[in-house]
Amino acid sequence: MDEKFNVMLSKNIPISDQTLIVGFPGVGLVGSIAANFIVDSLKMEMVGQMQSDKLPPAAVVQEGIPLPPVRIYRSDGLMVLISDFAIPIQLSNTMAQTILGWQGGRFKAIIALEGLMAEPTQEQVEAKVYGVGSTDSARKRLTGAKLEIFDHGWITGVSGILLSEGNRIGQDVICLLANANAMYPDARSAAKLVETIDALLPEIKLDLKPLIDEAEKIEGNIKEQMEKAKEIVSARQGQADKMTKSYMYG
Amino acid sequence: MDEKFNVMLSKNIPISDQTLIVGFPGVGLVGSIAANFIVDSLKMEMVGQMQSDKLPPAAVVQEGIPLPPVRIYRSDGLMVLISDFAIPIQLSNTMAQTILGWQGGRFKAIIALEGLMAEPTQEQVEAKVYGVGSTDSARKRLTGAKLEIFDHGWITGVSGILLSEGNRIGQDVICLLANANAMYPDARSAAKLVETIDALLPEIKLDLKPLIDEAEKIEGNIKEQMEKAKEIVSARQGQADKMTKSYMYG
Amino acid sequence: MDEKFNVMLSKNIPISDQTLIVGFPGVGLVGSIAANFIVDSLKMEMVGQMQSDKLPPAAVVQEGIPLPPVRIYRSDGLMVLISDFAIPIQLSNTMAQTILGWQGGRFKAIIALEGLMAEPTQEQVEAKVYGVGSTDSARKRLTGAKLEIFDHGWITGVSGILLSEGNRIGQDVICLLANANAMYPDARSAAKLVETIDALLPEIKLDLKPLIDEAEKIEGNIKEQMEKAKEIVSARQGQADKMTKSYMYG
Amino acid sequence: MDEKFNVMLSKNIPISDQTLIVGFPGVGLVGSIAANFIVDSLKMEMVGQMQSDKLPPAAVVQEGIPLPPVRIYRSDGLMVLISDFAIPIQLSNTMAQTILGWQGGRFKAIIALEGLMAEPTQEQVEAKVYGVGSTDSARKRLTGAKLEIFDHGWITGVSGILLSEGNRIGQDVICLLANANAMYPDARSAAKLVETIDALLPEIKLDLKPLIDEAEKIEGNIKEQMEKAKEIVSARQGQADKMTKSYMYG
Amino acid sequence: MDEKFNVMLSKNIPISDQTLIVGFPGVGLVGSIAANFIVDSLKMEMVGQMQSDKLPPAAVVQEGIPLPPVRIYRSDGLMVLISDFAIPIQLSNTMAQTILGWQGGRFKAIIALEGLMAEPTQEQVEAKVYGVGSTDSARKRLTGAKLEIFDHGWITGVSGILLSEGNRIGQDVICLLANANAMYPDARSAAKLVETIDALLPEIKLDLKPLIDEAEKIEGNIKEQMEKAKEIVSARQGQADKMTKSYMYG
After folding, report:
1. Do A157 and D247 make contact, defined as CB atoms within 8 angstroms?
2. Which chains touch C (3 or more CB pairs under 8 A)?
3. What digits encode the pLDDT tens for the residues A89-146?
4. DSSP per residue over A8-48, as a string?
5. Residue of B nearest to A57 (CA)
6. CB-CB: which of B90, B164, B229 is closest to D66?
């Protein structure tokens, strides 16, 4: 646990009545896509970020504004934690502990979004969402929403620790797993996650109509950004390689 | 010894009259399979877990309940320590010292379960269990139970240190080595281990009749979990690779 | 953030009315070339350097004078930070924080120079400069100078953190990105950066006439230095390999 | 020097009148074989061990008794330090300093055993022993025993530091180098080392008659142990690979 | 700067009137060869050594005497620092700082010896020496001795930092670069370095007549030592590989 996340908030938000949605890329990038859609759809306010030297140093420019890669958003009763990069495996534990002990308090509930790799043989995958709950009350919410339970298997990364630790300390954690295509950003699968969140959280109303359209647009943007990033980075790397390979063994 | 195990117990259990069974995967996964069977068979209660940043961050979902990978169980006079993952080699020493100096006390006895690779030429291996003891009294128990002694060779990992340190400090440690098939979870070999433990511990009664059936079912479950895990992980990795290889040399 | 930069200044310069230009190699080495030209053109005084064990240990000999690789120059109202080597990715954050919290003070403005990889299909790239600003006032300067805005995408490395942190703390940061050829030192692209800086900073007057000529000469020098460095280093490495590969596993 | 050896002795032995023989594997394993023979032949008592997290965690089972890999033996006036594993290169310095500053005292003399690779072209190598001494008195003992002097070259690892440091601080250190076959445990070469030690230490009497027979038996045992270890380890590794490669990039 | 050099001197030598010659291997090993020749020629006394865990643990045996790899010699007004191994790149800074702040004092002058790779196309290279000086007075000495100035390029490693830091703090540092053949120990090039030192230091008189003969003998010895070292090491490594590859994944 050497490398910690540095949580920087522009305002102090009491969290005991807040639900936190955790949207990291995952399979098919479904976590990021769904979380970004919710933030846009509810016009949530950015209230903070997390920093770590283990995350790639970068700004994400959106409409000319440079933003950090791990951002925290908020509206009434809801907070969203988004990362544009996968959380390095060795930071999973620290990230989970940061969320579970957020500023010394505890969230009303935590909903972690994950992609579940669809069978590789299925060409057309019907998006489907499974749920796991850390506590009896979390599991009741899942059965109440008629979600299929993910009852045997492993869940790795931040979500895995959130679930197992949630079980130990009695924190309501729900992990939603949407089967997704691992080969490209799967916007339809992300849409299914958003639909499920809408059903689980009666206090928010997500306009589901333009969802698929929006999701497809987001998907396009992400692809384009990945291409641009790849270009910038590989050029820089090519240059850096030429410059630096000389001085490695001076 | 930088990376320590964090032992978390839900209740304080005096251990001077407890026997601890240590079941880590090992050859043929016999340690885990045998330990899981004993826990189920005796309906033991989960009383704690061990955490480490060097273990893969993951929850093991069993019947919809998310659990940590390294778990501690207990019933009258008996404790079982199970890990679903192999203990990383650099943590072997810390794990052994954690067990030998458990909360400042000492177990009545420690029984470590290991698989011993069967000769690769033998297609059908008759399961057979060998024993090593750290002390005269431990060795007497082995000969009293008419177990064949493993008298020359190396025992690596946590069991190796438990034995050698047990010898030095006078802690009764018994290591049971069942020859096993290294290619798949070897439930029959695990069953032989359970039978041996039943003979060594008169204070417990394990119903041996449904053992093979149960063992084979456990074997099936583990295989299935490994397949599922592989799918989830390789998908996630494929995605992560695509996302991350770009920002390594920004 | 283990490895810090050691900032060594020969004189204490209050910076609240200083603009800092940051010129690191980047795509096409445009950052270094442009910064070196400005320093020569304005006959700026070298006032300090940065040291780090993560930077290659080396002296850059210029006209017989050995200099450190990361140098700080100054004239009225303007400071320039030059590195002849790419900043290692794991030092990006430390470098950005060093700049943003310079001796406890804050610059009037920071201008970071970057190359933006030109489309690989374009054989002849017309040099073009895009801008991103961290604050409203920074963005106003860009639009006032009729610069095209880089409105979506990722900016990695020191510049990325300068922008995103500048946004958070209200420090004016401008990143100028010139599309450049990644295969060789792109002096024409660097010249375009200098021209843009001249337009953005009315307080300085850069004689643009001999610019292209000068830039091409600088370009030639850099190529020559890279060749020489490569020779020295690969020879030394060949020798070192022969001497050292023997004692790795004594 | 981060990783230290933990020296654990069951009894406090004043060492100013003790000669220490250091027998680590080395070329042809001659150091271990010779040291093991001396311990058996003189029926020396095991009085301690060294531990380090950098050594492989393992017990060496001998006649049913689990022992640590680095052991310390003693009889009147003589101590032997044996390691069954090569000392990792990064621990060489720590090991040498531990020996040279043993519990704050100093040995009467230290004799380090090494193998010297025989010319690869020589099929039949006649075992021959060379000596190096750290001090004038150590060199006198070598010439007194008519040993050929190793007068130019490098001696790496623990023995190298023992010699060079012994020279600096005036500690008598003798390094005996037997030319040996690097391809297998070279018992005959080890026997030549034992014969030389017998000549150098008039206070002990080693029965040289059964030496070759014994040495060959030891050689056989070591080979057998290596085979067994390889089997156990590769099986465990195969299993571990299957289990673990999945969770590396969760 | 985690790993420091441990400077160990057998006597305290005030250095303000001492010139230090730094001879590390470098291209063609010219630094070591030249420094060794000067030490032998002036019959200088060994007065100390430097230790570091990052240097290979080894003794260099010369005429039967085991010596450390990094040695310090002295005669009236002159000190020589020799390393038989290349200084690891990550220790360059520490080494340079150790030299520049020697026991809290400062040398009258420092002369660092380097090889400069000859053009690979030149079969017969005429040995030629270039010079760089850190200060005006150092540069005057170079021009006074009619040495050609190395006026543009990079100098890496310890010499690079000595020059750049010497410039900053006003310490006279001269780096002499002899073009040398990188493929083998280049004794003629080393002889040219010695000749240049003889011209720069009127207070010493080096008998230049037997120089080439001596240099060729030294060259032969070094080659022989390298061969022997390679044999010992590769044998040890082969053995170590066989022994250790088994226990890496126990």
Report:
1. no
2. A, B, D, E
3. 888 999 999 999 998 889 999 999 999 987 654 455 577 999 999 999 999 999 999 9
4. EESS----TT-EEEEE---GGGHHHHHHHHHHHHTTPEEEE
5. B250
6. B164
